[in-house]
Amino acid sequence: MLGIKIPVFSIRVFFKVINRFIFVMALADFVVVAAFGLISPILAVYLTDQIANGSLEVIGFGSMIFFLMTALFKMPIAKIIDRNSAEYDDYYVTLAGYFLMSFVPFLYIFVSEPIHLYVVEGIHGLATAMAFPGWMALFTRHVDKGKEGFSWSFYATMANIGAAIGAAAGGVVAQRVGFHFLFIMVGIFSMIGTMCLLLNRKSIITSGHVRVPVRKGVLKKTSKISK
Hints:
By secondary structure, the protein is mainly alpha-helical. The protein has one domain: Growth Hormone, Chain: A (Up-down Bundle). Helices cover about 70% and strands about 5% of the residues. It contains 8 helices and 2 strands. It has helices at about 10-15, 20-35, 45-50, 55-80, 90-110, 115-140, 150-175, 180-195, and strands spanning about 210-215, 220. Strand 1 and strand 2 (about 220) form a beta hairpin. Helix 2 (about 20-35) runs antiparallel to helix 8 (about 180-195) and helix 5 packs antiparallel against helix 6. The radius of gyration is 20 Å and the shape is globular. The termini are far apart.
């Protein structure tokens, strides 16, 4: 009415800012981070009540096992997937890691002894070690040239928002419907986040080529590169 043009959001405009592959990778992690964020702040409370002779020491040892498993397996897995210059190994190892991670919340329901917790945390650490290297490799290769900072910041912002939403909602859900229902929710949402990765399946390079990101979200192949 006053001659002022109001910009209208559209998917087409959005993907000029961030390419589709990067958006899907960030979306998948957003869903998984938000899901696990539901239980992260209150998990210790549940476990100390659920585990026979449960204590903060037991919870601490469980966290130690998670981080040790992640640290021990992350670099060897990265070394293995780096042997192939194609992307299919990065993609499927990442997918397997996310899928395995999605089962962890369901396993928490059955934890009743310290050894149960240690096994579950070991599985969680292994799953994280599988998911991390391939995810980072795929994200890095598909980032648009000249938009590296924005793309990584977009992912970090999505992850932070997911963690914030999860932290705020987790206590409320547990208080109203119980921990077991909450763990089932987390597992289901984690599965949904894992399935988001399938949206990028057709964009994965299965030959001995990698994708070089160029401006405006366009990806092109280069000659064969050995890692």
